[in-house]
Amino acid sequence: MKVFDFDNTLYDGESSLDFFLFCLKKKKTLVKHLPSVIYNLMRYKAGYVGIEKIYSFCDKMMNVFFENRDRADEMLGLFWAKNSKKLKPALLELVSAEDAVISASPDFLLEGIRDRLKAQTLICTRTESGRITFLCYGKNKVKAFDEYFGGRTIDAFYTDSVNDMPMMKKAVSSYIVKGSKVRKVDKVD
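Above: the chain sequence. Below: its structure as tokens.
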């Protein structure tokens, strides 16, 4: 089985940030959160943010998105109508129904594009009533994978980030994705 990270791997960019910026255009009051979003995203990508900080920040942003659930659903549909073009066709060609997509992005966001991903299994940050109940990040990705698949072997794992080192260690083979280029990495111990 192959497992794929979503952001910057199958999707060209950070879908949560793109969704925030999309919502920002529709709801100008979100601008007050922009510096914090950019700062935390940079720290996340550099591997400087611990799980507690990410959890706290993401939970805060979830409350912003879910102030009005009906409006959030409408925004999600409009977002994917515009942003599905950011899915990487060459990477999507590698995905089959038996594979899995695993992501720190929230479930409500990725459910909106599930049908385009081909993989039947989508494992991501879980939310309920606008609150994060499980952050699928770092070691938690391995935990979530194991909860879903037990001891199943990951033949190949595709990611853009060393933040996914726990998943890379679990996989037989790992691949780093930069843009549309895919490079196999030496076995990670």
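The chain has a mean pLDDT of 86.
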